[in-house]
Amino acid sequence: MEKHGVTFKDYALANANLANGMPVERVCEILGIEEPVWAEVSEYFVNNMSQLEPGGEEMQFFAEVFTNPKQGKFADAGDAAGGVEEILAKYPEWSDFIKMQQHIAVASEYGIDIDLEKEYGITMMQYGQLGSHWSAMYKEKVIDVENFDSYAYENEGGPAITPEQEERYRIYTLHTELNNKWEAHFKEMYKDAGTGIGDDIDF
User: Fold this and answer.
1) Surface-to-core class of residue 172, CB atoms within 10 Å of its CB (0-12 exposed, 13-18 middle, 19+ buried)
2) What are the tens digits of pLDDT across the range 33-54?
């Protein structure tokens, strides 16, 4: 899996260093890309991470890299202040990011490019930082936790589950609910956006 020449391992290392306070500008410098490109890279991996094999090499690397972010291209990067805290102060909820994500996705279905600075007061780079933050949370709370029989849990009481599994179930379910909520919201908003397109075209 790769986007704009950035591999999944590069992406994992970038996120680990962002989580440790490295500014996005420095991350982009190390990866050799511009900040808008990093935002696209981040969005790509956020949306496609579920395709990776849970116990595979790439996900195992992602699980371990946050304890040792100074490796690969970032081996000699040093430490730097900064991070995602400023953006999280403005948009502290997971729902905030999922709303933006669905806004971009639904609008694109109608050929509309969202101006994040106008709509939300953040740059594409900052959007990528939010994506990195929440994908790391999802990975820790959902992907890294052993699954259980959700049907038995919901309908039959099921076997006893651990607090981590219960939290996994809550977050996984919340993710689905938030995506559905904001997707429906923006589809309603843009339902008339395509009206009339192609009306003057003769076949």
Assistant:
1) middle
2) 998 999 999 888 888 877 777 7
